[in-house]
Structures are given as C-alpha cells and as structure tokens.
Amino acid sequence: MGIKSYSEMVAAIQKLQFQQTKDLPVLDELKIAQEGNISSYYIPFDYVSQNAKVVLVGITPGKTQLFNALSSVQSSLTKGLEQEEVLKMAKNEGAFSGTLRNNLIKLLDHIGLHEKLGITSTASLFDRDAHLVHTTSVLKHPVFINGKDYSGSTPNMLKHPLLREMINAYLMEEIRQLPKAIYIPLGPKVSQVFEYLIQQGLLQDQQVLFGLPHPSGANAERIAYFLGNKARESLSNKTNPDLLDKAKLEILEKLSLNFN
C-alpha cells in the first residue's frame, strides 16, 4: 500500500464542498481504500511531533473528526498559513476532546506521567506542552464499515488483509519516527495490535503501557476503580479489579524504567 500524503491530497481538499452535507460520498476524491463494505479516507494527520515522549493511540478517527480536520485545513489555507502550521492545527482539531480528554488527563496524572515529563498536569499536553505528545491511531486514516465508524471488533484488524496492510504502512512508519517514545494503547483492541508490533520487533515491551482503562464515558466504573474513587466491594461483576490492579503495577514499573 502506497502512503498517501498531504501534498498529494491538498488540491482535492481545497475543492471539497461539504457545508450542506457531511456524508462520505462527498469525499470520494479522498478515498484511499475500498474492499467490500470497508472504506477508508485520507485525513490530514501527517504531522508528527519529533520531540514527543509519549504517544497516545486510539483505534481510528471517526467521521466527525475527519470532517473537522478537513474543515480546519480549508480554514487554515484561506488564512495563508504554512503547511506545517496547517497540519498541526488539523491534528489538534478534536483530538481526544470532551469527556474522553478529561478522563484521560485524570488517568495519566494518576499514574504520575506529568511528574515524569516535568509538567504540572498532563492537561498541558493538549495545550502549551503539545510538543511532548503525539496522538495517533492504529488505523491512521478513518475506516468505515458500511459507512459507519469502525469499532475495532469486526473484522479483526490483524486478520483482515487490508486493515493489517494499513497498520504496516502507516502506524509502523510513525513508530519508526518515534522509536524511543512511550506508547499508551487505549483499549484492548489497540493493545492487541501493540502486542503484534512488539512481536515484530518494532518496540520493546517496556515502552508500551498496557492496561490503562479506556477513557470513554461508557467505561466509568473501571476508571473510577483505577483512580481509587470506587471500592472493590462496590464494583459490578463487569469489572475485574485484579486485572486493573495488575495493570497499574506494571504501568508504574514501566514508567520508572523509562524515566529513571
């Protein structure tokens, strides 16, 4: 799979007209892959902070994030901004926003990441200290199943040829640019991909902080227990406290190894 870049796609982005509708057919010129009911579209997330010490990794951008990023590029181009600034702004558009971001900050501060980075709170990673973090996805460009956001479950991205090819082409290239960073996979599906990447020799196990609860609002109980805000005896049977305790210990050990 050939890697698509901003320079190849900028002309198509400039011509887009999606003020009236935010449906995928208006983005046909940005489609980079189609196989059966699976489609993928270019998103202008080329910018990589070369000084990043931490990489936060989700599954894939959703439709809202895709249109927000494209709108950001169009707006930046009308202002005459330089390419790096255009891409930086597009990347920051909606990255881990709302409840997701608030929960993520609490989790990262709880494990002491801010202290290891020498900042007062990981909240500043989304503001003045953005150079210390890189945000990405195992499937860098948005993937849709029958036009709907891909959840990471079906098909299995490590077993589906197209999705695995996208991981190999895009995610591996980003990792090669940031070989010494700490990687934080968000959720079990992302963690499975990072286990594969470790097997491939791209990363060391100690670089990957497995087991941090996904910061989604739907994951409130696991987050509350991890943060020490909910007692073990109050948990529902959907939450496994032993797994969370084990994950926290391993995360703290890896942080001390990486920031000694």
From TrEMBL:
InterPro entries: Uracil-DNA_glycosylase-like
Domain Uracil-DNA glycosylase-like: 45-222
Organism domain of life: Bacteria
Protein name (record): Uracil-DNA glycosylase-like domain-containing protein
